[in-house]
Amino acid sequence: MAREDYEVVIGLEVHAELSTKTKIFCNCKTEFGGEPNTHCCPVCMAMPGALPVLNEKVVEYAVKAGLATNCEIARDSKNDRKNYFYPDLPKSYQISQFDKPLCEHGYVEIETNEGTKKIGLTRIHIEEDAGKLNHDDFGRGSLVDLNRAGVPLIEIVSEPDIRSVEETDIYLKKLKSILEYIEVSDCKMQEGSLRADVNISIRKKGAKEYGTRTEMKNMNSFKSITRALEYEIERQIDVVENGGKIEQETLRWDEVSGKTFPMRDKEDAQDYRYFPDPDLVCIKLSDEYIENIKNNLPELPESRKERYLKDYKLTEKDANKITASKHLSDFFEKATNISNNPKAVCNWLLSDIARILNEKEIEPDEIPFKPEDLAELIGLIEEGTISSKIAKDVLEKMFETAEKPEKIIKDNGWIQISDEGEIRKIVEKIVDANPQSIADFKAGKEKALGFLVGQAMKETKGKANPQMLNTMFREEISKK
Ligand code: ADP
Ligand code: ZN
Ligand code: MG
């Protein structure tokens, strides 16, 4: 069979660390980093007899996430113990939720080339994170850091509704953006605040049953998810094409070799011997409580997008790109409110600024200057103080020094030459020195004008006002 005869089926289990100030069952700080084992107490270190108390904010944040993803919120929910041994889990069980999760039956809408598609969410539940093992630098064994133990997580489980690598990327980006908008997680993938277990299977197109899936755990970058999926799809097709069978197993993605390796057989729910945590009470939520969270939900990307189409007349494509990131979108709104030029702000953000962010591998919330600085830069172009070409150099400097555009322009002597006499002199000089171009232009070659303007720009190091150059060249040539 040809590769095109196979269909890919993907489902994700996404873990997001919640940005509550304190941990899920104790008062320790959730802050990332810090000296190992300094954000711990008897509860999160699993001292015998220490009792957990559920942090109400965790429930609130999880309900927010559920409402933002169209889930039904359970009025009656509970915490269960998921038993397993691992050195980063001193209790030997993780407090999670088994048969009564807080949220169920939701969906996330994604924009694909074939239009809008709903990805179903099976459930969202709350649980605690484990500690961290440090394997490197010690020579003899590993050390455990429990700062992360007990940091609250939500696990968002999707239905196997995703049908391609690209849809996976779009879905994950959309989910990340929703969590950022409702401010329940900082979603920093490089710090592990957002990570995904990726489940994948293949089947013949048109088949009713799903194929056997493999699972790649703890993936924490978009790039590695894409690479791992592309590899795993090829691998599974090869196995089937060669008459083999896919084993249901957990795989490890190796970034260096670009391959997946078997880690262990797939475990079943019964292996974990789940049971209700006797130290914790049930979670009962009233209609008023849920209603109240619903009414106070921040604006979501969709409604922002609609607003940008209507109020700022952005194109659908641009509005999608800007609202994909809350930080970018906040930046856009602030700069637009000052500059009153949404189109220009949008263009700067999506072209030059996006390019620099990409080069520096940083996120929109790490832009070193302020929205008002971008507004100022746009203003300086509008009033003719600098050309848009020089503005690009100013922007580069803004990224380096975070200084105000006006100061950068002054310090570098970049103010645009708009003095008529001065420009006229340059134009006359260049016209005299290039008789051939003048003749070409008169013979109808518009391109020759571009060459002359280019010469003038060279002469002034890009500082001459381009509109004035254009007009004056035409005037001077017509005199000849
Ligand atoms: P577990 O909790 O043991 O990992 P679940 O049955 O809850 O297993 O499924 C976990 C994830 O795997 C879900 O996101 C689901 O959509 C996905 N999934 C289930 N079956 C398949 C399949 N055949 N192919 C791809 N993904 C699947
Ligand atoms: Zn603690
Ligand atoms: Mg799983």
Overall 3D geometry? elongated
Over all CA atoms, what is the radius of gyration?
29 Å
What structural class results from the helix and strand content? alpha+beta
Can you count the beta strands? Answer: 16
Helix count?
15
Which spans of ≥5 residues are poorly predicted at pLDDT below 50?
none
Count of all domains: 3
Q: What can be said about the biggest beta sheet? A: 9 strands, mixed
Please specify the SSE layout and strand pairing.
Layout: E1 6-17, H1 56-68, E2 72-73, E3 76-77, E4 80-83, E5 93-96, E6 103-112, E7 115-128, E8 132-134, E9 143-145, E10 152-158, H2 165-181, E11 194-204, E12 214-219, H3 222-241, E13 249-254, E14 259-265, E15 275-276, E16 283-284, H4 287-295, H5 301-311, H6 316-324, H7 326-339, H8 342-360, H9 371-382, H10 388-401, H11 405-412, H12 420-433, H13 435-442, H14 447-459, H15 466-479
Parallel strand pairs: 12-13
Antiparallel strand pairs: 1-10, 1-11, 2-6, 3-16, 4-5, 4-15, 6-7, 7-10, 8-9, 11-12, 13-14
Bound molecules: adenosine-5'-diphosphate, zinc ion and magnesium ion.
Adenosine-5'-diphosphate binds at residues 9-13, 157-160, 199-201, 210-211, 213.
